[in-house]
Design a protein that fits this description.
Length: 145
């Protein structure tokens, strides 16, 4: 029986630890830019003498909602892009661990959308095939002696 962590494409929760290393700086800079924009808009709206208190309150609520939505969208984008980056990395780590355990029949498979990694997938599968054949040949030669 396979462990749940070995199931390919199991979920985003395995890529969450990679969010900060892969996109942390991008995330921080974008959130800061959004906050500066929101504060600037709020200051501009409250400084205007033509706007009464009720309108200022409505503008403030819209700006707070916009800021929260943008921060959530940026965080969601960071998780999505990290998942796209870390997915092949996690697949390779799992495949290497399988080879280390002696499971040479387990192929390396990436998502069908990761076409740029097709050469790595083919090379890994060829490597395990050659290793399996070499081990079978050595096992057969040792059995004959």
């Amino acid at each position: 029986m396979r462990k749940l962590t070995e199931v390919r494409g199991f979920g985003v929760r395995y890529t969450l630890p990679y969010v900060l290393p892969f996109s942390g700086l991008w995330l921080v800079v974008t959130i800061l830019a959004v906050l500066v924009f929101a504060v600037t808009c709020y200051i501009a709206a409250t400084a205007s003498p033509q706007i009464d208190d009720a309108a200022r309150t409505r503008v403030a609520l819209v700006l707070v909602a916009q800021t929260i939505f943008l921060i959530a969208a940026v965080f969601g984008l960071a998780v999505f892009t990290t998942h796209r980056l870390a997915g092949p990395y996690i697949a390779m780590i799992r495949a290497f661990e399988a080879v280390k355990r002696g499971e040479l029949d387990r192929p390396l498979r990436f998502r069908s959308s990761d076409i740029h990694l097709r050469d790595v997938e083919i090379a890994f599968d060829e490597m395990t095939t050659v290793l399996r054949e070499r081990l079978e040949k050595e096992g057969g030669a040792a059995g004959e002696a």
